[in-house]
Amino acid sequence: MIDGLGTEAVPKRDVLIQDGRIARIAVTTMIADIPENAKIIDGEGLTVMPGIIDGHTHMGGIDYSVSNLNAEIWKDVSGMEIYQHMFAYGSQGGIDGMQRYNEANLYAGVTTIVEVGGSDEISTKIRDEIIAGSRLGPNIHTVGDTIESIPGNTLGVMQLTSEEVQAEIKGMLDAKAARGIEFIKLYAGISPWQARHIMTAARKRGMRGIADFWCMNNSQEVIETGLFDSYAHGGCVEVSEEEARWFAENDKFAMFTLDIFDTMRGERGWPDYEEQNFFRNPLIVDIWGKEGVQAYYDSFLSLREQWHDGEKAGYTEQLWGNKLPLLDLNMKNLMRMYQGGVTIFMGTDANWPPGNWPGEGMHYELELHVRAGIPPIDAIRMATYNGAKFIRRENEIGSVEKGKKADLLIVKGNPAEKISDTRNIVYVIKDGRILDRDSLKKR
Ligand SMILES: [Zn+2]
User: Fold this and answer.
1) Any domain includes 299
2) Ligand 1 centroid, distance to 337 Cα (angstroms)
3) Do the domain assignments include residue 413?
4) Ligand 1 center to residue 11 CA distance, Å?
5) pLDDT tens profile 109-134
6) 78 lies in which domain range?
7) In the list 59, 196, 288, 440, which could disulfide-bond 292, CB 3.0-4.6 Å?
8) Which distant-in-sequence residues (6+ apart) come within 8 Å of 275 by Cβ?
9) Nearest one of 139, 148, 157 to 57, comparing CA atoms
């Protein structure tokens, strides 16, 4: 058993689940009075751990064939326009696409997601239907629509002193609060001082803040000035030991989405293009089917040109500076934050960029954290308990403890010794019920 709290894995534990919760945990055979009709799962060779929490997602379907069709058009637009088009991936298939996205997460043992950019209306509707039991899916926490000043947003270049904009911000925040949205995400284009203004109003409404200031991410300045709780990703700034201590002392969270930096330099997608490993990855091919994976490989070369190699590609210097050292830099920052005692949680940003598959991506993210130097048991804590802590649900989910909701993952092997064992999923349990994983497979 791995409890998700960072405690060493312990052998031979029985976990009794009743009424959707963990009723008891004891050394094997020590639980007396097991109800007669209980379903028994033989745990020989298996490990039980908390359901995974993806702390950075965007609900939406995947259809790479669409991006392929758009390739010609994209060659003639600017980096910023390509950037906006990237989110086209995230909106494929409407509600059905979002449903498939959520099924992909559950299939891979991700029982809770934090949607860091979606829709106030649709994301909360889906969240509520899952809570009501009329829709299958992970627990959802969402920021709803992001607040940004890139072209196309009603705020435009914000003049915060104008009464009109003030009223717009207040109206927007009131509407979010009424939908039970707990966080807002402020995005590239907003200055830290503008952010402070918006976050002050948000905090009055009980909402917390996530910052995505792109290359400025990781810096103390944005979080401190903007009154944020966390970044949405790592960035291009190197964190000093002193800054890491500041994050820890001020209860700020850190989050890196390492897979983004791996994909930016083309490392995840490229070897996979050569070897086409995604066809042999059950967490991907079972859900998206051979055709879905084939569409990815068919569009990969044009994607690579648009995103990495093309003159106007979305990952050029104008947007992110030199992207090649960013994975190493963010792994270094991760270790500095870890050694400084910062609470780090984990997320993927799936399904952006291409090759970042919902559900499966968290297993890759776990592996990247271990590759950076995080001990597996702590990487698991970041992907479970720390995520729950960020959304302030650590009394309900994120660990295997008596009284907690039974959102669990049962895998073959021992991820505390070999992190990739989290992929060997035997059972996913949500709200105490065993998920029918077979029924989710693509036929
Ligand atoms: Zn994102």
Assistant:
1) yes
2) 21
3) no
4) 38
5) 999 999 998 889 999 999 999 999 99
6) 52-116+232-399
7) 288
8) none
9) 139
